[in-house]
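Lecture notes, unit on binding sites. The following record was shown on slide 14. It pairs a sequence with flavin-adenine dinucleotide.
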Amino acid sequence: MANVARDFFIGLSNNQFLNTRAKKWGFFLGADKFVAGTTIQSVMKAVKELNARGISCTLDNLGEFVSDKTEASQAKDKIITLLEAIHQENVDCHLSVKLTQLGMDIDQNYCMVNIREVLDAANKYGIFVNIDMEDYAHYEQTLDILSVLRRDYDNVGTVIQSYLFRAEDDLQDLQDVRIRLVKGAYKESAEVAYPDKQAIDRNFVTLAKQRLLGSAFTSIATHDHHIIDELKAFVAENHLDNDQFEFQMLYGFRNDLQQKLANEGYHFCTYIPFGDDWFGYFMRRLAERPQNMNLIVKDVFYT
Ligand code: FAD
């Protein structure tokens, strides 16, 4: 049953008609609980509130299915304006970007020009840029682009998904790169990814422990308190340095746990999406946790 719900919401997340319509309709279904408005101003307000509570942030200007250069170029300009705002407002915040938003599906060289412009601006202000990992169809291209970028920039990293069989090997190649470790949000074939949740969770813990014993910074991105507790114990047992890692969660999820971890002295970073292209992001969140439907029902009936 859980798999049926997951497939249903992932199917919706890929529906281009609904994605386009939702941009025009604006937020509904309670999406505003998980997306910090549509403007740079609205997201900055959310960042300042979290910073004031000892939580740093990473910002995602939402955007999916970018298939023409005008749209990709507009996205790049908005991201650069966002970097300028982060600098001017002096907030504790970095950036997350998706390469398809910068034109990876249009032309790899064109995407490379765009991401270099973004990294140049970020470099100028000393801001780190994390390249989000999308579905497996974009995986190798993303790692190829990262390896070229790493020759010229050290303020860039990416995401590795523990549902992929190859995750461990890829992390070996990325030992000196700042990485966000996640379980993986897309529907992938059993040829490349573990189909069952237990195996994905186990691999997440194994990979997180390997990273924690290494030297590069790791963002441990999960809402799973069992895993978080296990990793906290591992850090304590091995006398590891809290400055080598942070926990990350998505905006609007488990706010109490986010604050608790920050209060306990761990580095904590909230991933904040904003913008009007919210539909695909929101449907993937429902795919992960259909219980979030409760929030929708409450939103529809009680507001
Ligand atoms: P799950 O495996 O969904 O849940 C595990 C357990 O945690 C649940 O059984 C429950 O006990 C508890 N739990 C989870 N959520 C809640 C909740 N809301 N309330 C109460 N209990 C809860 N995926 C990508 O593919 N690419 C990316 O670039 C990417 N970036 C991400 C960035 C961040 C900061 C985060 C947090 C996730 C990102 N993801 C990304 C999504 C990720 O891959 C997972 O799909 C998502 O995080 C769900 O897995 P989970 O470990 O958080 O929890």
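Take-home: The longest strand covers residues 268-274.
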